[in-house]
Amino acid sequence: FYRNKWFIFFLLISIGAAFRFWYASYFISLGDTSYGLSADGPVYIKSAKAFSNGTIEDVDFYHSPFYAFYLGVLIYFFGHSHYSIFFAQAAISLVSLGTTFLLASHLLNRKTAFISCFLIATSHICIHYSVAIHRINLLFITLPFLIYFCLSVKSDTSLIKSIFTGFCFGATFYCAQEGLPYLILFYFFLIFL
């Protein structure tokens, strides 16, 4: 079984899912105090409720509006409960394992892709920020996609890939403005390489 690449890949995804869902259940056990474990968590939840209710005037645009909108979509579709917010974030964060695998196998080789996927699946920092109410949660998804689309848009300039690249640029900026130097580097990469 260990020589089958899909078996190993899904095993790594399962390990990452087990850790993330276990940690999400820990957050759920804390009740309402779990929102305050990140400094801006209560502000994001308040803005997310405003987005999901359609009361845009109550949204705090000083804090990352794209992350609050993302939480608002989760609340709109799955309801405002600790279960829906933390488990949905844990499930969506598993996308970062797949994009990291694609990126590492595209840039290097499959063995490096498995190692990098394993490190992200078991890293306590990645597990924490994939569940906590923090804007970095969404950055774990948009940044690997941005890198992947920047690499692939050079060889395939289809409209869909260009649209996804632009979406990832915008989402990365509105999730974490300190990621701006990375965006500038990716922009120069697209222009000059």
What share of residues are in beta strands?
A: under 5%
**Given the C-alpha coordinates, what overall shape results?**
globular
Distance between the termini: 40 Å
Largest sheet: none
Q: Tell me roughly what share of residues is in helical segments.
A: over 70%
What is the number of strand segments? 0
Order of helices and strands: HHHHHHHHH
**Separate helix tally:** 9
> Mean pLDDT, nearest integer?
80
Low-confidence stretches: none
- Class from helix and strand fractions: mainly alpha
Q: Rounded to an integer, what's the Rg over CA atoms?
A: 17 Å
What do you see in this structure?
It is a single chain. With 193 residues, the chain is mostly helical. It is 76% helix and 0% strand. The protein has helices spanning 5-29, 41-53, 65-78, 82-107, 110-122, 124-131, 136-153, 159-175, 180-192. Helix 1 packs parallel to helix 5 (110-122) and helix 4 packs antiparallel against helix 5 (110-122). The radius of gyration is 17 Å and the shape is globular. The mean pLDDT is 80.
Layout of secondary structure:
Layout (H helix, E strand, L loop, with lengths): L4 H25 L11 H13 L11 H14 L3 H26 L2 H13 L1 H8 L4 H18 L5 H17 L4 H13 L1
Helix pairs in contact: 1-4, 1-5, 1-6, 2-3, 3-4, 4-5, 4-7, 6-7, 7-8
List its salient traits.
193 residues; mainly alpha; 9 helices
Summarize, please.
This protein has nine helices and no strands. With 193 residues, the protein is mainly alpha-helical.
